Amino acid sequence: MPLTPIADKIERGLQKLPFDESLKLDCGDDGVIVLQDGALSREDADTACTISLSHANLERLMKGKLNPMTAFAMGKIKVSGDVSVAMRLGQLLKG
Question: Looking at the whole model, is its pTM more than 0.90?
Fold first, then answer.
């Protein structure tokens, strides 16, 4: 499963910093990572915010090699729903 290492890193971040929002990272055919009720799941679900991006761009984002604001402006990341939830995700990615 290509998203497993990324999901593991986000899960470690959840242990350090609770995330009580409802957010989905949608990488299309590569799968989803859903954060809901303080837990991580790989099962698709409705969330308050969805961030759609490629698996490669998610990896670059996690490694700090892709600026989220620049990626959003360039259309590499699409956000639907509550954008303020997406803004809080950055705290977890640093974990």
Answer: yes
